[in-house]
Amino acid sequence: DGLAAFRTFLKSEFSEENVDFWLACEDFKKTKSSTKMAAKAQKIYSDFIQADAPKEINIDFNTKNDISQNISEPTLSCFDDAQRLIYSLMAKDSFPRFLRSEEYKDLVKKQKNRNQKKWLPFL
Protein backbone atom coordinates (compact mmCIF):
# COMPACT_ATOMS: atom_id res chain seq x y z
CA ASP A 1 0.00 0.00 0.00
CA GLY A 2 2.85 2.37 0.85
CA LEU A 3 4.57 1.88 -2.50
CA ALA A 4 1.30 2.39 -4.34
CA ALA A 5 0.61 5.62 -2.42
CA PHE A 6 4.16 6.87 -3.03
CA ARG A 7 3.88 6.02 -6.74
CA THR A 8 0.54 7.90 -6.94
CA PHE A 9 2.18 10.89 -5.29
CA LEU A 10 5.15 10.79 -7.68
CA LYS A 11 2.77 10.53 -10.62
CA SER A 12 1.03 13.69 -9.44
CA GLU A 13 4.45 15.39 -9.45
CA PHE A 14 5.39 13.93 -12.85
CA SER A 15 8.34 12.03 -11.39
CA GLU A 16 7.18 8.41 -11.10
CA GLU A 17 10.07 7.40 -13.36
CA ASN A 18 12.34 7.63 -10.32
CA VAL A 19 10.64 4.84 -8.37
CA ASP A 20 10.11 2.85 -11.58
CA PHE A 21 13.85 3.05 -12.33
CA TRP A 22 14.80 2.11 -8.77
CA LEU A 23 12.49 -0.92 -8.84
CA ALA A 24 13.76 -1.96 -12.29
CA CYS A 25 17.32 -1.86 -10.93
CA GLU A 26 16.34 -3.99 -7.94
CA ASP A 27 14.78 -6.55 -10.28
CA PHE A 28 17.84 -6.41 -12.55
CA LYS A 29 20.20 -7.22 -9.65
CA LYS A 30 18.33 -10.49 -9.07
CA THR A 31 18.93 -11.68 -12.64
CA LYS A 32 20.89 -14.92 -12.90
CA SER A 33 21.07 -15.59 -16.64
CA SER A 34 23.58 -13.52 -18.65
CA THR A 35 21.19 -13.54 -21.61
CA LYS A 36 18.38 -12.14 -19.49
CA MET A 37 20.81 -9.69 -17.88
CA ALA A 38 21.76 -8.23 -21.26
CA ALA A 39 18.12 -7.91 -22.31
CA LYS A 40 17.05 -6.33 -19.01
CA ALA A 41 20.02 -3.95 -19.04
CA GLN A 42 19.15 -2.81 -22.55
CA LYS A 43 15.50 -2.32 -21.53
CA ILE A 44 16.50 -0.21 -18.50
CA TYR A 45 18.87 1.78 -20.69
CA SER A 46 16.27 2.45 -23.40
CA ASP A 47 13.47 3.19 -20.90
CA PHE A 48 15.38 5.40 -18.44
CA ILE A 49 18.92 6.36 -19.45
CA GLN A 50 19.31 7.15 -23.15
CA ALA A 51 18.59 10.64 -24.41
CA ASP A 52 14.85 11.17 -24.93
CA ALA A 53 13.99 7.89 -23.19
CA PRO A 54 10.24 7.61 -22.46
CA LYS A 55 10.90 7.68 -18.68
CA GLU A 56 14.25 9.46 -18.71
CA ILE A 57 15.67 9.97 -15.24
CA ASN A 58 17.61 13.04 -14.19
CA ILE A 59 21.23 11.95 -13.68
CA ASP A 60 24.50 13.70 -14.35
CA PHE A 61 26.38 13.43 -17.64
CA ASN A 62 29.28 11.37 -16.26
CA THR A 63 27.01 8.69 -14.77
CA LYS A 64 24.95 8.53 -17.96
CA ASN A 65 28.11 8.36 -20.05
CA ASP A 66 29.60 5.54 -17.93
CA ILE A 67 26.44 3.49 -18.36
CA SER A 68 26.34 4.19 -22.11
CA GLN A 69 29.93 2.96 -22.50
CA ASN A 70 29.38 -0.22 -20.48
CA ILE A 71 25.89 -1.24 -21.58
CA SER A 72 27.19 -3.61 -24.27
CA GLU A 73 28.68 -5.83 -21.53
CA PRO A 74 26.49 -5.18 -18.49
CA THR A 75 27.28 -6.35 -14.98
CA LEU A 76 24.85 -6.62 -12.07
CA SER A 77 26.31 -3.38 -10.70
CA CYS A 78 26.22 -1.32 -13.92
CA PHE A 79 23.30 0.83 -12.72
CA ASP A 80 24.41 1.16 -9.08
CA ASP A 81 25.68 4.75 -9.31
CA ALA A 82 22.54 5.93 -11.09
CA GLN A 83 20.34 4.02 -8.66
CA ARG A 84 22.12 5.64 -5.70
CA LEU A 85 21.63 9.09 -7.23
CA ILE A 86 17.91 8.50 -7.82
CA TYR A 87 17.46 7.02 -4.33
CA SER A 88 19.17 10.08 -2.84
CA LEU A 89 16.99 12.39 -4.91
CA MET A 90 13.83 10.64 -3.71
CA ALA A 91 15.04 10.52 -0.09
CA LYS A 92 15.96 14.20 0.07
CA ASP A 93 13.25 15.67 -2.14
CA SER A 94 10.22 13.56 -3.06
CA PHE A 95 9.80 11.47 0.08
CA PRO A 96 9.71 14.36 2.59
CA ARG A 97 7.00 16.00 0.45
CA PHE A 98 5.16 12.69 0.26
CA LEU A 99 5.12 12.53 4.07
CA ARG A 100 3.23 15.85 4.06
CA SER A 101 0.85 14.85 1.25
CA GLU A 102 -2.79 13.81 1.25
CA GLU A 103 -1.77 10.42 -0.21
CA TYR A 104 0.32 9.74 2.89
CA LYS A 105 -2.36 10.99 5.28
CA ASP A 106 -4.89 8.70 3.59
CA LEU A 107 -2.47 5.77 3.84
CA VAL A 108 -1.95 6.34 7.58
CA LYS A 109 -5.69 6.63 8.15
CA LYS A 110 -6.34 3.41 6.22
CA GLN A 111 -3.60 1.62 8.18
CA LYS A 112 -5.03 2.79 11.50
CA ASN A 113 -8.46 1.49 10.49
CA ARG A 114 -6.99 -1.90 9.55
CA ASN A 115 -5.13 -2.18 12.85
CA GLN A 116 -8.23 -1.18 14.78
CA LYS A 117 -10.30 -3.85 13.01
CA LYS A 118 -7.72 -6.49 13.90
CA TRP A 119 -8.14 -5.68 17.57
CA LEU A 120 -11.88 -5.16 17.38
CA PRO A 121 -13.11 -7.89 15.00
CA PHE A 122 -16.75 -7.02 15.66
CA LEU A 123 -16.36 -3.64 13.88
Radius of gyration: 18 Å
SSE string: HHHHHH
- Helix/strand/pairing category: mainly alpha
CATH level-four homologous superfamily name: Regulator of G-protein Signalling 4, domain 2
Q: What is the tally of helical segments?
A: 6
The strand count comes to 0
CATH topology: Regulator of G-protein Signalling 4, domain 2
Shape: elongated
CATH class: Mainly Alpha
Protein name: RGS21 protein
Organism: Psilopogon haemacephalus
InterPro entries: RGS, RGS_sf, RGS_subdomain_2
Domain RGS: 1-108
Descriptive account of the structure:
There is one protein chain. It contains 6 helices and no strands. The chain has one domain (1-122): Orthogonal Bundle (Regulator of G-protein Signalling 4, domain 2). It has helices spanning 2-12, 17-29, 34-49, 61-70, 80-99, 102-119. The two termini are 22 Å apart. With 123 residues, it is mainly α. The relative contact order is 0.15.
Question: What's the quick description here?
Answer:
With 123 residues, the protein is mainly alpha-helical. It has helices at residues 2-12, 17-29, 34-49, 61-70, 80-99, 102-119.
Helix-strand blueprint:
Layout: H1 2-12, H2 17-29, H3 34-49, H4 61-70, H5 80-99, H6 102-119
List keywords for this structure.
elongated; 6 helices; 123 residues; mainly alpha; single chain; 0% strand; Regulator of G-protein Signalling 4, domain 2
